[in-house]
Every structure is written in structure tokens, then in C-alpha cells.
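TA notes. Do not distribute before section.
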Amino acid sequence: MAERFSDDDAAIRAALEQAHTPSLLASLIHFTGNADHLAGFKPPVADLTVFGDEQQGIPIDQQERARALAAEHLTRWRDAGCPDLPRPPADAVRAAMNYVAGIEIPPAYEEFLTQELHLDGLPQPTRVTIDASPEVKAEWPVVIIGAGMSGLLAGVALKQAGLPFTIVEARDKVGGTWWANRYPGARVDTPNHLYSYSFEPAHEWPYRYSTAPVLQDYFERIVEKYGLREHIRFDTRVDCSTWNGAAWRVRLHDGEILTAKAVIAAVGQLNRPKLPDLPGVASFAGPAFHSALWRDDVDLKGKRVAIIGTGASAFQIVPEIVGQVASLTVFQRTPPWLLPQPVYHDAVAPGKQWLLRHAPFYSNWYRFALFWSLTEFLLPAVSKEDGWDTPGSLSPMNAELRGFLEASLGEQFADRPDLLAKAIPPYAPGGKRMLVDNGVWAAALKQDNVELVTDPVAAIEPAGVRLASGRLVEADVLIYATGFHASEFLMPMTVTGERGRDLHSEWGEDARAYLGMTVPGFPNFFCIYGPNTNIVVNGSIVFFSEASVNYILGCLKLLVEGGATSLSPRQDVHDAFNRRVDAANARMAWGAPDVSSWYKSKSGRVSQNWPFALVDYWNATRVPDPAEFELR
């Protein structure tokens, strides 16, 4: 519920100037009890022509009328003492959803979106509860590995369910990737009002796409608010976990053994820096480091800096350091597609923060607007259409997306055709991670002290980077923005299941799990952000983690309430699921055989990505089906 306020009329009108009009109009159904007013407003445009436009093509005069209408309702509500509002009828909620999306929401999404985003005015659904005595629950200790976004989420859920747990964290702080990645410019590429827990929306985000320190502070606040710190063991690594038939023995790096009835691995996918497979990597004479191991003690001012890679990290680093260095050489193997978003570095205006905090249900509808634009909006555009054979695209929609992205690049590099030729990817949009762009990348590459090199790198030498052409690019500092060992899930831990089965031996090069969480023969062992749960263009990973935690708690509920000792998925269920995933990934841009990316394992299998709609994962993880498991 929105916080009560006593601001005067002028303050309300000033705040409304910063409103996202579709969300504002949708929120008024909670005052009126119907959606009749929406008929008087042009629906938002639901296509690429307004991507990144806060008002989504709504005419200015209608924006003004919407703000005036909202001001009437807000002032009346204030004057009445900010009372609770009645629950709007389902048809009004449905009409508001259709309006904000700019299209008719498919029926399969109505319950999903209404419940997840609390659009109907009902209290947030209760998390999974476990009906057992405190004595019984005390016999079910859980070990969570990792205190990043997913591990903390699991801790909150376990605490609310009343199960004992310990969070083991290798670093000395919580936050996971947002603590590890401290390089200049590190920030999230999902809007922060979506990249946050559904139960802690954090209306005070200072930026639309927050920086790593801001996100780190958010997770620190979660730890304090939900009393998690007493459960966390910092500077502690897990060496191995072994199932003994009734429980897991989790051995820590100092030899201590923790006994757990269940283990939740929340270690993420992007946590082990990867250096390029090049001769002489260790021979460079100056400072050389990976972007995820940023060295604050290295002063870049006036230095000749070389950065290898043009993925997400380099994309954020280069614009931040270009003004400090004497020269900057950027080595690019393949260019990324850039998704235009003019507000990428923008602060959240005070008026918008006021609305998110005080205007009833505005934050819910704003989150819905972001959610929909990042789910089904782009997913169909990165899917293959049979019979389509135009090079560089997969379908008419994908070709349209390519045209839009090419036009944006053309505008940014209009004065540098030499760079434009290097900036347009040959592969279809969606084949690799698309980067959120507000023009700073192009501006940086066009600086006089910057060179974009696309010739292959042959080796690293003490003085710099040797190209296949024979040229030596001299440098004082070398930065590797070369990604992570993403497909090597759970490494370097050893996980031993039933009958001495080693998980990494079972997986080989291709990690697989049922719903990305459970593996046959490894009872009560769960992964969050496990195999095939990464999302490319359709949503926030926070949503996936929340769905996963809900499912894991459901599995623990089956165990604790049912009196069983162990639970693991049936082999046939696991295998059928992975066949469906593989077949679907083969039809996505990232599954194209000619595209190499961190989404694929060494064998070429897409081991990271979820190829279906988010609603499919939500439906699959609502309640675990006992028939899909072996319960003992």
C-alpha cells in the first residue's frame, strides 16, 4: 500500500510531471473501481518505434489530461486521510493490463501477472509455509552456498518458513556479483524498479539502472531488515558436499563439516573470471587484470591502456576511463548489438520517486509496464521462423529488429563510416547478449585517443598485444574483459550424490538439471540460476530466482510434512524436460550453430538459457508435483 502523505496540491502536480502516463492511468482503476476512463486515451504504442520512450507515443495533450485526472483523485484521497482503497474488479484489472501493454494480454498471463505484481489490490501472496512443529523443523537444517541476490532470497524464504539455515559466503560481503564487480561504470542493465525483490521494491532507487555500489547497499539493507547476518558465515568456501544417504556433509575449506538435510547452491553463473586462451598471458610486464578483479591501486591516468573484449563489462568500462588515459586500444572479436535506451545513466527524478512511494498502486503498474516490455515484447523477435533465409536474421520480426538496431548504430556512427563497419554484428540480434546503450559507447570509440582493433590477437608479450598481422600494440596496462567460465556450473566444488556419483562427471561438458534446479541421483540438492535458467531478452533474473526459491521451498514442504528423507527428480522427467529445452533453444537466435557465445558449453549446447516464456517457468515452479520425483 502507498505511504500516506500530506503534500500540497502544487507538490502533487509537480510530481505528476514525472509520471509514466500508461502506469498512472492504470493506477486510477483503484480509485474508480472501473477502467472506463481508459477509453478516452490513446493506448501506448507497442512496437520498436517508441522503444526507450517513457511516454510510449501518447500525445502530449493526453499526457496533460491524464495528470490532471490523477491530481483530482490524489488530492481527494489525501483529503480523506488516505484510506484503504477497494479491490478493483477483475475486468478492470484486465482492461488496465491491456492498455499499459498496448495489446491484448494473452489469457495465460492474466493470473501470472496479476499475482506476481499484485495488480488487483490483494495483499502479497504468502510465501510457502511448512506445517510442522518447531521440533520437526529443527531437524531440517539447510546450507545455502552464496550470499548474492539468490542466496539472500533463499535465506529470507527459509526464515519465514521456520527452517534452520546457514549461508556460506566466500567473500567478506554480501551482494555476489555486485560486490565482486567493482570496475568503473559497473551497473545493472535491467531497470532497477524491476531488478529488485517483489516484496522489497525500493522506491528510492537513485538511478533507473543502478550502479554496483547502489545495488550492494540494497542487499545489505535486505540482510539487516530480515535478520540474515547471524546466519551468514563470511570468508568461508565450500570444498565439497557429500550425500550420506540421509543428509549432506558439507566440507568447508578449513576442514569443518556442516551437516544439512538440504543444500541450495546459489553461486551464480558469472563468478569465475576467464582469461583468453592466448600464448604469453602471464608475460605482460605491466599491471594486467580481469575486469571482475579490478585493481584500485592501478592509476590509469596518462597510461596507454589496452582492453581485450567488447562485451558487457568493456562496454561499461571504456566510456568511464577514456577521459583519463593517454591512449586506449579496444580489441574486438565480434561486435555486440546495442539496444537503444536514452535513460540508461539517468537519475530517477524526485517526482517519480514521490509517485512510486505515495501514489496508490502506481509502483505496481510501473513495474508491470517494465515487466511486459522486457518479457514477451522482444522474445518473439529473436525466434526462428521456418523458411526464412535472409542472412543475418531469423524471421520477419528479427529482421525488423535488426533494421531498428542498424539504424540506431548508423545515426551514432554517421560521421565515422570506418567504425560503423566494425560496429554492425554479422549475426542475428539475440545471438549474443545485447547491451543497453545510451550513446556513450559510440562517443568513446570516436575519441582521438581510442583505437578499435578488429584484427585477431595472436599473443600477449611483455610490451603489449601482438596481432596476427604481426603488429605489436604497446601498452602500460592490460585489462581482460573476457567473461567468465559460465558453463562450468558449481566449479570448483565437488558434489557427490547417491552411490558415490560425482556431479561434474555426470554432467561432463553439458550441465543439465530439471527446471534448472534438481538432478537425478542428487537428493535434496538444489541450484538457483542453474543450467538453462538464464534469460536473454525477456525479463529480470530476480523473477527467476523468486520462482526457483518458491519451488525449492515447495520441495522442502513435501519432505518435511510428508516425513520423507530424500527427494530427487525422476530420470525420465529430467531427460524429457531437457529434450524440450534443447529443441526450443535450437530455434532461438542464441542457438544458431554459427554463433559462439558464453551461452554455450564447449560442446556447443546452449547450457545457460531459458528458451520459453516467463509464464511457462512460473507455472512450472508454482507447486512441485510429487509424481515427478523419487521420494524416499
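Switch to the second chain here.
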Amino acid sequence: MTDDNRLRIEIPKEWWITHNMRLHWAQRAERTRWLRQVAKLKARHLAPLQEASIHAMIHSPTARGGDIDGPAPTIKALIDGIVDAGVLPDDSPKHLKFLTHSRGQPTGKPGIYAITLRVSDVNPPF
């Protein structure tokens, strides 16, 4: 598999969103807009697909990490950006068949998270 179907997006902690954060709605919306825009710009090289599987690898600044599903709001905003870029028509189950995530290596950069998204037209074997 080549890197042509991958996006690695580094995210400063000021823009990171988790389920556990108690953000004001306007602050959450601002972060979501920023994440969508970054993903839209980074996804321009991806080929359009009608159906896809996406695997999100979460990279925390340190090995400590956190809840594996905590950054789901960040991942959702990035997927919305991929849709905005025209890679998928929508992120509904009709087009996004599988969404999986795992923990990756730490970024090793204080205050910098990263998400690596692998967009594939091949469904997982389960």
C-alpha cells in the first residue's frame, strides 16, 4: 500500500477535541471548522471514491495517550473535511463502510497530536 491514500495531520493541542473536554459551543465550532479546513486541503490528492473504509491512527505527544475513542470528535471533523474535498459524496454508511482507529507512535513533540488517516476502497475482512 502506498502513501497516496494516507493523510497525516498534525494538530496543536489548542485545536484538539475529545469527548471529555468541556468546551463552550463556539470554541468547539471554531476547532471543528479549523480541522475540517485542514483536512480538506490535505485531502486534495486523494482519488474520489463512492465507498471507502477509513482507518484513523491516533498519535499523542507522549506514550501516555488517553482513551482510544476520546478523539472521536477530532476524527469526525477530519472525515468531514475529506467529504468537503470531494473524496467521498458523504460520510453516511452508504459511502463510509468502515471506520476503525488505533493508537500510533507518539509524535514526540510537546503539545502536538497527529492523526494519520488511511482512506481505502478495500473493506476490512470481517
